[in-house]
Design a protein that fits this description.
Helix content: 25-40%
CATH topology of the largest domain: Aspartate Aminotransferase, domain 2
Radius of gyration: 20 Å
Number of strands: 15
Number of helices: 11
Strand order of the largest sheet: 1-9-8-5-4-2-3
Distance between the termini: 20 Å
Strand content: 15-25%
CATH superfamily of the largest domain: Type I PLP-dependent aspartate aminotransferase-like (Major domain)
CATH architecture of the largest domain: 3-Layer(aba) Sandwich
Shape: globular
Length: about 350
């Protein structure tokens, strides 16, 4: 067997869409980007969507468009990909880490307020593995303290909290990297109901131009191409079906694997709709390395997201971080993600389950 941890679904639809763009000659940012932005905003349920070159630049631009910079602090999670915290550093602001809820792996809202200072400008929760954070509680904290809410929804395309989609509670940031629930090969998106944030984001991603060759702010070349947008338009049509397949695979896993005493399956709250960007279990009793060796021998793909929390990374230690985040550090030693993507075949799913059931 050779079962990858992730596999993008690319069909003739995407190939023909790219071919049409190439033939048109409009291969940079043009009408396809505008079309993708409008359709993505409509899907998420926001007034605006602004495309960028990738998920990291989406975070960077979103922070800048919300006027976050030097002297500010942004509260976020250390249990995430490095782009989450680095995007804050890019602006000159300081990321402030809060421990996670052990059940969801997302930032624990009950620990946020103790980290708020006079310098705090925003809270940036991460909707990890495809499940939203406790976003309503976090939004209430933002409202009570007059803080900006920025959602790192890079792994949560279509995920819901009380029926409302991730990325629609504050300023949302998405990634379309090939492993995500939909892909554009590389790409990112910002979602917002703020006209001001939208206009600022569009300028920042395009060299700070108000109009061509007139620059009234510092900007970057963070644009998406029509080639990527054409893929994204095709993928967006399939997103709900992709997520449905992920949930179905996750249900099969949970039904079978929950019987095993050496691992814990993902926990999903009743008011959330998980889209299972990753199906992540906890491996108990220090057995993860042993299981990994078995997975490699069996040809089963896996991932550890994330083996070292951000506050323990050399970069952040050099910056003076000395956090002790107990649940975050515990999760980093126990988490293991296994294939859950929509292209997973029944025999592959059964093979993976049999591996865990037969593990001694």
């Amino acid at each position: 067997m050779n079962i990858p941890i992730a596999k993008p679904s690319i069909t003739e639809d995407e190939i023909e869409a790219v071919r049409s763009v190439l033939i048109s000659g409009n291969i940079a940012q043009s009408k396809k980007v505008e079309e993708f932005e409008k359709k993505f905003a409509n899907y998420i349920g926001t007034d605006y969507a602004i495309s960028t070159s990738n998920g990291t630049t989406a975070l960077h631009v979103a922070l800048l468009a919300n006027d976050i910079g030097k002297g500010h602090e942004v509260i976020t999670s250390s249990f995430s990909f490095v782009a989450t915290a680095n995007s804050v550093l890019f602006t000159g602001a300081k990321p402030v880490f809060v421990d996670i809820d052990p059940n969801s792996f997302n930032i624990n809202p009950s620990l946020i307020e103790e980290k708020i200072t006079k310098k705090t400008k925003a809270i940036m929760p991460v909707h990890l593995y495809g499940q939203t954070a406790e976003i309503k509680k976090i939004k209430e904290i933002c409202d009570d303290h007059n803080l900006i809410l920025i959602e790192d929804a890079a792994q949560a395309h279509g995920a819901k909290f009380d029926g409302k989609k991730a990325g629609s509670f504050g300023t949302g940031c998405f990634s379309f990297y090939p492993t995500k629930n939909i892909t554009t090969s590389e790409g990112g998106m910002i979602t917002t109901n703020s006209k001001s944030v939208c206009e600022k984001s569009k300028k920042i991603r395009n060299h700070g131009q108000e109009r061509r060759y007139y620059y009234d702010t510092l900007g970057f070349n963070f644009r998406m191409t029509d080639i990527c947008a054409a893929i994204g338009i095709c993928q967006l049509k399939k997103l709900d079906d992709f997520n449905k397949a992920r949930r179905k695979n996750a249900e099969v896993y949970s039904k079978k694997l929950s019987k095993l005493d050496y691992l814990e399956c993902p926990k999903v709250s009743n008011n959330k709709e998980h889209v299972f960007h990753q199906y992540t279990v906890r491996i108990k009793n220090g057995k993860r390395d042993q299981i990994i060796k078995g997975l490699e021998k069996a040809g089963i793909g896996y991932g550890i997201y994330y083996p070292m929390p951000l506050h323990m990374q050399p970069l952040y230690l050099e910056l003076g971080y000395k956090d002790k985040l107990r649940e975050t550090e515990k999760a980093a030693k126990e988490v293991l993600s296994i294939p859950v993507h929509p292209l997973l075949k029944k025999e592959e799913l059964d093979f993976i389950i049999s591996f865990f059931e037969g593990f001694k």
